[in-house]
Amino acid sequence: MAIIKQAARQTLGQLIGANNPAVTVPDDSQRQYAWTKKEVDIYWSDIQKFKKARDSGKDSASEYFIGPIVTITDKKVSTRSLLDGQQRLTTSTILIAAIRDILWRMGSTEGLSTANNLHRDYIARKAGRREPMEYFLVLSLFDRDFFRDYIQDWNENTGKCAGIERPTRPSHKLIKEAYANFEGKIATELSSFPDDEEKLDWLDGLRECLINGLVFVEIQTPTSSDANEVFETINSRGKDLSTVDLVRNFLMEKSRSDSEKQRVNDAWRVILDGFERREEIERFLRHFWVSKHGDVKSHSLYTIIRQNLSREFNKNPQVYGVGAFAAELEGASIRYIDLINCSTGHPEFDAALYEIEALSADALYPLLLAASERMDYEHLQDLIDASISYYVRWTVVGRRESTLLEENIFDAAKSLSGGASIDSTTRRICDWIPDDETFKADFEEASTPKSSQSRYLLGKIEACLRASANVDEVVLATSAIVHVEHIYPQKPADEWRLEDHDAWVNRIGNLTLLNGRKNQSVSKLPYSQKASIYEESVLLVSSDTETSRIWDSQKNWWKIDGIVERQRDLAGLAISIWPGGKRWD
Length: 585
What we know:
The strands form five sheets. The chain has a six-stranded mixed sheet with strand order 1-10-3-4-2-7. Strand 5 and strand 6 (about 135) form a beta hairpin. Helix content is about 55%, strand content about 10%. It has about 575 residues and is an alpha/beta fold.
């Protein structure tokens, strides 16, 4: 059970003020900055509500409790290592910096003086001319240099930070976005005041709310293991967003030497620098674990990882310990980045990866991650092609239970990691693919309400038509200027609307592709008034698949039988585009 020295009430000014020990995020724990616009907006909204209530003079609104933080403190409380609360303290410091900069830009003597004092009291200061800078909040190695360069290393003469460091990690970009967000919101508030005096009063009120009104409960613990236990307890009902951080904290806790801790940090640098968004890191971690151990849900991922690795590390740490796992995770992250960025360097394989991206077929990544550890990408073409056929025939067109597909794919990935061959795994997947007769029947009845899936299916049909006609593929169906067109419109005028509209509007036989920006007014018209658009299209799926069958020129009305007939023809093409399991025998 964790030891708690004390739980002390602290205002923001007491936590990061110049007369208190600096708050430091240790390198061997905690995550990087993670708040997106959503969290920053909620924080700002809460501050604004609190400020209005506080300005009203109500005693009940004198303080705003913003939550607990967990620190590791020495006996004299001369140092404080922060384990939980980094997001709130970092965001608060960013807001103080935005207030500082706006005050300085006002140019008045009072504005400049207040900006300087705000910086020296709550962000950073020098005790003497030749003394090093003292930072009141010190982030971990992942964000420390960028945060100092962009927020803390402020020049009182120019009113600017150095701005030398480039935002190379997702967290760096979030820091920049949070600052810009606050700067914009403050500017909007100030625009309603006619003179500088009122603006200074409002800014001072905001500063006072932050420094003296925001209240935390600081839970002080004597050791990192105590702090970790408290941190995990606080976050036990938390978001999946903390899974990566909890895993890193666990690995640091289990490290038996500084070299193992360094190995974990090295792996995390590669992971953080490789992904554009934090959500991608969370998805990678789950897919990595699934590729080794089979299905696990996001909400229980950390618990299962901790339990499993604890057993493994305790068995024989010299053979498989923290360092080995960190190296394995790092290598997998590099391959995973190649997969999601479609950048393996093998054109045919990368083209298949683009299909997976277009289909949002994320369930296939654990299988490919496991396979890529065993063989080079050029030897995995049959595996990825069979997997795509399985996904399209089962899920996209067949609309069967996707959970079963995931269970099958995840089990195949686990078997691959356990030693199964690529060929035997490909044959397993082929056995799951619905046969041609079933697929054709499914396709003839299929509707695709998701525009992205419709675009993918029609794009592949277009490529097939162009190959059969020996037409140069200059116009790509996947181009950003190509859109899905409903021949019988999605939103027809009342006089042209079918009685059973919903049953037919998204049928594949009613869909085509057009090159160029859609004219919304034309798209709602009957076929007779836009037939030439299809006939003159450079895309064969529009010009060569007899879209005219959907319009009865004699009755001047839509032909449902035409949609059925056209879809039946497209189904015949689909069988060869997404082949059944016999294709790989």
